[in-house]
Amino acid sequence: MSSTVPLLVGISGGIGAGKTLVSQIFSLLGIPIYNADDRAKWLMANHLPLKTRIIENFGTSAYFEDGQLNRQYLAEIVFSNPDKTSLINGLVHPAVGEDFKLWASRQPTKYVLKEAALLFETGSYKTLDFTIHVAASEAIRIERVKSRDVQRSTTQIKQIIEKQLTDELKNKLANFVITNDDSILVIPQVLKIHAQLMEAKIKN
Question: Binding positions for ATP (predicted)?
Fold first, then answer.
């Protein structure tokens, strides 16, 4: 691989862990951020090959007449059916992966960050050079989500948490862990990881 190609670094964390806040700190250091979840929504609405496959598997009702994604329709199908969840993920995640690599190849930096909610759950962390997990206790995460998303109940938030891998497992899978529970300052942790990544080399 050419030395001009940036290191591919993933950053993730369970709901309420604060991965977006941490990503913003990296951004202030000049690191480009690829938001995989936002980009997935864009690709589902605008990437013709992906749209075609979604229609083939979920029907024409997956899109409105104006071509925009019918999120509610898809969510109702996918949410309660693990097989359908796997199917949509199998369509979307590869498209996001290719889009990310193309985007990353155009960035003039030592490394780039791919921010994704389900980085470890989907296995996409295996395609990256390094990964960062943002961790916080379940109690803190629940309070954060409730304060920013008042319509969600504690039960609903716990259901989302239960569908994600545990922090313990993600801590083991990640190359770096950032603790974001107010017990330790976040910025020094980011600066330390940033310094290490600036010196790191692409894995063989």
Answer: 16-21
